[in-house]
Design a protein that fits this description.
single chain; 7 strands; 28% helix; five-stranded antiparallel β-sheet
């Protein structure tokens, strides 16, 4: 399994809405495995296909960060959300910055697994937060898009300063 290059802002693929997946063949299975490898190698808890330059509705979620526990989620839809919490989030596509983001604490998610089988899960707390973050990627939403005005501009400026320093 290969470690793939993670795209960083301002790569245009990160701002595009991803398209549904219809093929679950051998090439797609390799992609899923490569995404899992990439996520773990990058010390991430999630990775969406746009982050590796593929505008398809695929993400990997592994809130435990333990090998063998990653979930492949394809064509996911959040059916229901409830509760709210605020917590700091970072992003593999925006290395070096983080922001306090309001997310639902509970959600119901329908998705297809790596073989196309449909599932519905009830998720809570950190796992729900990871899912919402990855779903944002599938909709072209980045971490700083959750902020307005001066806070948004400051996050972008901090990111650009880090990027210019080669971080």
């Amino acid at each position: 399994m290969a470690k793939l290059k993670i795209r960083t802002y301002p790569d245009p693929v990160l701002k595009k809405k991803a398209v549904p997946v219809t093929d679950f063949g051998p090439a797609m299975q390799k992609l899923f495995d490569d995404m899992i490898t990439t996520m773990h190698a990058s010390d991430g808890v999630g990775l969406a296909a746009p982050q590796i330059g593929i505008s398809q509705q695929i993400f990997i979620a592994c809130p435990t960060m333990r090998h063998g526990e990653a979930h492949v989620m394809v064509n996911a839809v959040i059916e229901k959300k409830s509760g709210t919490s605020v917590a700091a989030e970072g992003c593999l596509s925006l290395p070096g910055i983080s922001g306090e983001i309001v997310r639902a604490t509970k959600l119901r998610l329908t998705f297809q697994n790596r073989f196309g089988k449909k599932y519905t899960l009830e998720l809570e707390d950190f796992f729900a937060r990871v899912i919402q973050h990855e779903m944002d990627h599938l909709n072209g939403i980045l971490l700083f898009d959750h902020f307005k005005g001066e806070k948004r501009e400051q996050l972008i400026a901090n990111y650009n300063a880090l990027k210019n320093k080669g971080m």
